[in-house]
Amino acid sequence: MMNNNFNPHRGMGARRFGTGEKAKPASIYSMFLRIFEHARKEWPSLATALVCIILISLLEFVVPQITKYTIDTVIENKRFNELILIAAGVLGAAIALGVLRYLSTSVMAAIGQRVLYKLRNDLYRHLQRLDVSFFDRNRTGDLMSRVTNDVSILQQLISSSMMQLFTDIFTFTAIAGYMLFIDWKLTLLLLATFPFMIWTTRLFGKRIRASFRKVQESLADVSDHLQNALTGIRLIKSFTAEEYESERFSERTKKNMDANIQVVRLRAAYEPLIDFINFAGMAIVLVFGAWLAMKGSMTVGTVVAFIAYLRLLQNPVRHFSRILNTIQQAAAAYERVVEILNTKAEIADREDAIELPPVKGRIEFRGVSFSYVGKNEAEVLEQFDLELKPGQVTALVGSSGSGKTTIAHLITRFYDVQTGSITIDGINVKDVTLDSLRSQVGIVSQDIVLFNGTIEENIRYGNHNAGAEEVRAAAEAANAHEFISSFKDGYDTQIGERGVKLSGGQKQRISIARAILKNPRIIILDEATASLDTESEQLIQAALAKLLKGRTCLVIAHRLSTIQQADQIYVLENGRIEEHGTHAELLQRKGRYSELYELQFPVVYEK
């Protein structure tokens, strides 16, 4: 109800980013492979971490061996003089382990942050390259959640869990090999419990991953609702809908709460099962180790060392049971990230695309048919023909939904036509690069987009390389310099989010200054003065007259007073041209344009 970003093609359940089938879930293997692709450039740090892992695993052997030596040799032979050396050895191993773990943890944390930085930037750049239809299909809050929350979850995996995982794998392999060397029969009995651990882990892993996916999706719903509510706060307050919005927000947070509770229940069931299997292994070692010791086949010190190694062997399993939650949560987040990364833009440069040369501005639509969702949907334009002559002002009028704004979107290739062609100076827009096309087109619309920052930064958005004098000249040409100078900080004035601190007329003049600074050959004015008062409209019309001079201009308007001087006016209905001509010619024909004019100016028209 209060969704500022409502779009008829965007659904709450939208989970497909392309028009094809839903992609298969990304595997954990592919997740680690992509992480490694980013991390391998940090090879000096990775080498340092690897050395630390090897040394930590080797030191893990020291204490059990000291214990074995103490029981079997020192105690047996009453070597009192070696007790201090034994204490020093244990404490030295502890200090060395602490230093190595500090180094490995800090190094892996730094690697994790750098990988996170690269991954988030890759994701953002990819989003920037996707076409407008992608953003029609997907919710802004959900996309924000993927770029921020989901990538942050991956950071936890990279920074700490991966380090623990690599250490545990190396330690487990080394200790298992050593235990097999000491007593392979006892070790095999112990390892017989591990298939049950693997089976339990796989069974719970799939369920935990699915539950984490629900957590991430419900969190995206919360983010999307919050984004819409905060941007539409004035509308909410004007309709006294605070309680209604609070209830809607509560519904979404409850779904997130329920999803998190389900994850906790699965973890609460999984970890005790793993502990039980570990204790079963402990029982095997105690019983058979004691039996071998009583038979004289194994010393007591060896049994104690074997139990210590068993604990070291089981620690990686315990760690993995906890890391599994992080891995599955990261896998669920990675699936949501990779869905975007694997989405290809439907509108992109062809391999043989050329740079559009400086244009004169002749734009031709020939047999164009277009629908927003696809060929099976109702067509907005059907076998549509139109010509915009260079250096002239062409106006489009008609009822809402007649296809006026769609024509502007097709010129800039925000969408591509299903059939027919659009050419500029005889060159098909599909044959040129998007950057070279859009760099020569300027758009001034009713829906003004200004970014949180200074006035100067927003004007310079039209040309990032422009100097202060060029920015001021553009503002003067847009009749904006006077009101900008009246502010205390002038061009350094902060305008607030979406220009909330400026009036409608002021925001529109800044957007015109931005277009003037861009200096495009083709100008599209989409209801540029529709919501302004008479004084603001007059100032903006004067600014537009300077902007349009010598350029090809397409004007989309409901207010017919703004297009009376247009060189050619086209009246659209249901995606077709009803009539066209100059203002005077169309009034004389007594057709649809005359009807629209009479509705807006009944008294003037009767005279």
Automatic annotation (TrEMBL):
Entry GO CC: plasma membrane
Residue spans crossing the bilayer: 43-63, 83-104, 165-182, 188-205, 273-291
Protein family: Belongs to the ABC transporter superfamily.
Domain ABC transporter as annotated: residue spans: 363-599
Keyword Magnesium: no
Gene3D superfamilies: ABC transporter type 1, transmembrane domain, P-loop containing nucleotide triphosphate hydrolases
SUPFAM superfamilies: ABC transporter transmembrane region, P-loop containing nucleoside triphosphate hydrolases
Domain ABC transmembrane type-1 stretches: 47-329
Topology term for the membrane: Multi-pass membrane protein
A GO MF label: ABC-type oligopeptide transporter activity
Signal peptide: none
A Pfam family recorded for this sequence: ABC_tran
Protein name in the entry: ABC transporter ATP-binding protein
Subcellular location: Cell membrane
Domain of life, source organism: Bacteria
Source organism phylogeny: Bacteria, Bacillati, Bacillota, Bacilli, Bacillales
